[in-house]
Amino acid sequence: xxxxxxxxxxxxxxxxxxWAEVVGERLAAQTTPISLDEGGLVVSASTPAWAxxxxxxxxxxxxxxxxxxxxxxVPAVRVVVAREGPRGxx
Length: 90
Known about the structure:
This protein is of the alpha+beta class. It has a single domain (5-88), classed as GMP Synthetase, Chain A, domain 3. It contains 4 helices and 3 strands; from the N terminus they run ααββααβ. Strands 1-2-3 form a 3-stranded mixed beta sheet. The model has no long low-confidence stretch (mean pLDDT 88).
């Protein structure tokens, strides 16, 4: 059963509030979760180098995201490079 946009938005908001706990302060300063649905989590990184770091940690990020949200699993973590960096940072 598919979840509605409100539930997806609430989950993403909850994740955003604890993002630094999920990925650590340094990685949180350079990444942000931008989408979370049945297909998994999409993370935006400020640069290709930070994207590579997040991709390296994708399994751990998925596991910790599921724990933070009280869910069984996050099926996949996909990392993209932001055009202007997360939250306007560059």
